[in-house]
Amino acid sequence: MKILVTGGLGFIGSHAVVELLEENYEVVVIDDLSNSSADVVDKIKQITGKDFDFIEADVCDLDVLEKIFTDHKIDAVIHFAGYKAVGESVKEPIMYYENNLVSTLHLCKKMLEHNCNKFIFSSSATVYGDPEKLPITEDCKVGGTTNPYGTTKLMIERILADIHVAHPEFTAIILRYFNPIGAHKSGLIGEKPNGIPNNLMPYIVRVASGELEILSVFGDDYDTPDGTGVRDYIHVVDLAKGHLSALKKALKDEGLFYYNLGTGNGYSVLDLVKNFEKVNNVKVPYKIVDRRPGDIASCYADPTKALKELGWKAELGIEDMMRDSYNFILKQKQ
Ligand code: UD1
Fold first, then answer.
1. For 254, how many CA atoms within 13 A lie in the half-sphere containing its CB?
2. Residue 228 CA, closest ligand 1 atom number
3. Alpha helix stretches (DSSP H) within the chain
4. What is the residue with the minimal CA distance to atom 22 of ligand 1?
5. What is the CA(41)–ligand 1 centre distance, in A?
């Protein structure tokens, strides 16, 4: 079985490639290194002891895609490549819509031309906007995204549904991620955001390691147990394994499927800080500041559909997430 992984050197993609290789799939990665680095290729090979093809290119490039589908008999595609910085997407909407939509359209076009009909897509819990109920089930209303990044995810979900109507054999599994954190236990791969991080966990690890001074907690007056925002943090290795389960379903069943990939547990910002300090025995200074525009109070998954239909559930706990996130950063500094 040969799997094309777009964005396979990024945070989530690289962990998925590790899991694929460990289960003996053949892997072809396409990545333009816009938010990743080429050294991840060797790191993945070091972890798995296995080889894979890496093509440094942009997924929007139709000629490159044509060559990949001609040179390789691709059985399924896992599409991670995409821009994902919320703030940047507000400043550069054209760049976000162009990159995220065109890459997906070109990919699907080439897949259909080459009779490759199995597609796994990285969507996000952001498609639920301010959720109508908690925990969030897959049949909750989608819409109400507050930034172009989130809207690209919503639009791509629609595009995939339309392609499935026109081509029923085109099977798409849409995975709605909650908040991925953590890193591979080897400390060799993990999340390396460019510049100052926007997301909570990358910020916490940089404060703990002394790279940044203090964490700003965005609001303590939400309607949550301690007033700070509640999210469903999921270990990236669990998330990567969710893709393997989805892939197995896509290879055997035809259809259009949606799954939440979360743990079902909500942790507040201060829960995370306290757990991080305890597990890693390090201080994370913080101050309470104003709410961040566009943030919601609480967001956590009902993950039962994924368990029932994919046989997947998150296995790693908050301590693993805290330990592995910090371990990765400390290893980077050695
Ligand atoms: C964000 C995006 C979401 C995207 C996801 C990808 C927004 C509104 N949402 O999710 O669309 O899919 O990242 O990773 O940006 N926080 C602080 N201080 C910080 C950073 C965050 O207090 O320095 C708080 C936030 O207010 C929130 C929680 O930590 O309550 C998690 O924030 P973050 O890690 O940015 O993720 P989301 O906002 O849930």
1. 8
2. 30
3. 11-22, 39-48, 62-71, 86-91, 93-113, 148-166, 200-208, 236-252, 269-280, 304-310, 318-333
4. 217
5. 28
**CA angle 40–46–52, rounded 5-degree value:** 65
Q: Which residues, listed in sequence order, are joined to residue 77 by a DSSP beta bridge? A: 4, 119
Summarised one tens digit per residue, pLDDT across range 282-322 is 999 999 999 999 999 999 999 999 999 999 999 999 999 99
Alpha carbon separation from 250 to 4, 116, 130, 247, 331 (Å, rounded): 14, 12, 30, 5, 36
pTM for the whole structure: 0.98
The answer to whether 6 touches 77, Cβ cutoff 8 Å, is yes
Matching residue, tokens 């507050």: 146
CB within 6 Å of ligand 1 — which residues?
Answer: 84, 86, 124, 126, 150, 179, 198-200, 203, 215-218, 229, 231, 269, 292, 294-295
Q: Please identify, by atom number, the ligand 1 atom nearest to the C-alpha of residue 125.
A: 12
Look at the block and give the residue holding tokens 């070109």: 106
- Token representation of residue 56: 């440094």
CB 263 within 8 A of CB 301: yes
